[in-house]
């Protein structure tokens, strides 16, 4: 599927893209002149208020959307769905209910016409990496929320994509599970570095995971601030008490506050 | 075992009520024959081979009509479900064909299709078509858009998404349509035979009713149709249990 050796990643370059969605009341501008560089093997976390186009940004890199203007490059060429260069995991596990966990994880290889024996082997390997080797035969409805989410991650990892896109992958999980998953995600990435773009609403999660935190503005989305996170790895999932981490969290929070997203204002402001 | 017992009890109650109506109502045989008169006539019709001959013809019409109608309906339903344009263009004709009484159309179809088995299969297929096509369309559209986006992100094309997601998602609804359709296939076969056939249970009903004034024989033919309908309905339910895994 790809000639790039796993564990290196590809450069992702987004240059001055505009994205508009048609609505009955005229087009909505989702992204306006957004530019972003994610070097090969880097871990970029994208944070911003609701409706800032974070998911739209990932869909551009996945090749699910085309920009109205500007260019998107993955490893120097335009992204194309199904070419194996990009893996995408969603906020919901999005498993097919009538397929076993193994067959769900094997789906990307099935669509890429990988022979059956080979795809089962690779799906099993991906499930082992996320700790699901024991439940391969179960149906998705038999999994807990956290296990289903890990299966969704395994499906994205199964093709060993040089670029991994994660759209709020753990935001539906409880806080403790989420911290564990953040640590595991960091471990997976350190074992086999690749370019990761992760969307989150959690400033703490952003600082734990990111090489760089990209702060986006409300609609139309653009980059307002890039914060480099210079903490040594592996980082604990809970950085409370780390003075440098506290500074970085404050910096990201300040950037978020500066964009004055309507929903971040005090609720009673209008009434006053 | 208990389910079989309950079915037998309800059958016995049905036959008893039937018998009571004939006795208490003092109805003559040509209005409503008693159950034992029908049973006696059935034994005679089976023995003479008359029942088998007509049943075989009707069974063939039902099987072929249902197979042709259901296959075309599922394919059409997929096209209707996937494309709003196809639905806009085709649905007026499909609805109109359904709204026109099949009884009025059947004699024409009989002429158009040459009056033989082909004509009867065509009439049967037409009556089967509508509920299955509409059920398939609705089912195809019930596919989860989040799963559809997931498949698109993996590079799945329209045909692959239909096979991997839309048809499996639609199966429970399609089977709802098949259940309705298979019982309509029985009606379709009889209507087709009335439009001009030499044999079949529909013809037997006409002969018994209008020719011989043999009401018990007509009831034998009606019972045969009811049993055929139940049997095919049961087969659809069995297929549904095997194929729909949720």
Walk me through what this model shows.
The complex is a heterodimer of chains A (272) and B (246). With 272 residues, chain A is an alpha/beta fold. Chain A contains 8 helices and 9 strands. Chain A is 32% helix and 21% strand. In chain A, the strands form 2 sheets. In chain A, strands 5-6-7-3-8-9 form a 6-stranded mixed β-sheet, sandwiched between helices. The longest helix of chain A is centred in the C-terminal third of the chain and has 17 residues, at 175-191. Chain A is globular, with a radius of gyration of 19 Å. Chain A starts with 11 loop residues before the first strand and ends in a 14-residue tail after the last helix. Chain B has helices spanning 2-25, 35-48, 50-82, 84-99, 102-112, 117-141, 145-153, 158-194, 201-211, 215-243. Chain B has 10 helices and no strands. Chain B has 246 residues and is mostly helical. Helix content of chain B is 85%, strand content 0%. At the A-B interface, α3 of A face α7 and α8 of B.
